[in-house]
């Protein structure tokens, strides 16, 4: 019997995971990406227990653990380094049977790409999506260079600026969070205690914060989130000096990380999401990951939710009727994904506070909250086991 055929638009984490999940269910998959070459910019990603369990189902969890660093400690500190609280990373790992892991995005993408290519999936770069033309029995994907391919299913995994989403449901505005983020990767000779074996900290100031995570072997992934008007992202050549000025006098590892980062590698983005859609699918076309439910990064769940989407979508597509399968996929995934969208926004408001009295109150609450309460609070997110 001929294999069922699908096209995935976008070769990021969600796109590659969906291709891998479909392959494992017997589909023939082609991945199309508009980039001339597949590469992920130099930044890190945290994969919580729910993401790791989904990656285990896809057969790549062990390789991710080998390439990444387990989160052994996660501290919350004041801007000058005073400890507010340590999040219960060890208790969560014991409860869920796996640590969270920090990994360079390029390494994660390489692992996923190797797994996908091992199943003879076609990867096409330099392919600009134009539209999908649907009939009852098939959908034809049309690209700017004249390429056309007829398949049973098209998955839009082309990120927050998804062109598949826009075709299906029209344009929708970006929602600015109120802060911009700068990110980088560096090598430090002296990684702070607690981050040496994996893990790190977030330091909270007035309207700004700094996250620091060990990638292992002295490599550190960091981010800075800074309250600012939308559209004020600095040119690359100005980013390092601006960061050093903004974080002058902060906890020493913060300044060390910025100083140790090559200026040309520092990334900067306004942090945005979009209002939830009423549905993700039309006929034989659907959305996945940031194309479906872009979220702010404050819970570290953007990648995890795309991976979960991929697993659930492939399972639902065991149904013969593609349109019905996509409706089932939406019913299983939308409530969870949109809950995390909302929680990510509320978390952002809490950690980006500017008022000194509110900051003192927040820090006092965090300092007096017992570890088991943290585990319970995040259990619906991190403790979730996708099937």
Strands, count: 18
Helices and strands, in order, run as: EHEEHHEEEHEHEEEEEHEEEEHHEEHHHH
Average pLDDT works out at 94
Count of helical stretches? 12
Q: What gross morphology would you assign?
A: globular
The main β sheet shows up as: 7 strands, mixed
Spatial arrangement of strands, main beta sheet? 6-5-14-15-16-13-17
Concise overview:
With 387 residues, the chain is of the alpha/beta class. The protein has twelve helices and 18 strands.
Describe this structure in words.
The chain has 387 residues and is α/β, with parallel strands linked by helices. It has twelve helices and 18 strands. It has a seven-stranded mixed sheet with strand order 6-5-14-15-16-13-17, sandwiched between helices. A five-stranded parallel sheet has the order 8-2-1-12-18, with helices on both faces. The chain is globular and about 60 Å long. The two termini are 27 Å apart. The model has no long low-confidence stretch (mean pLDDT 94).
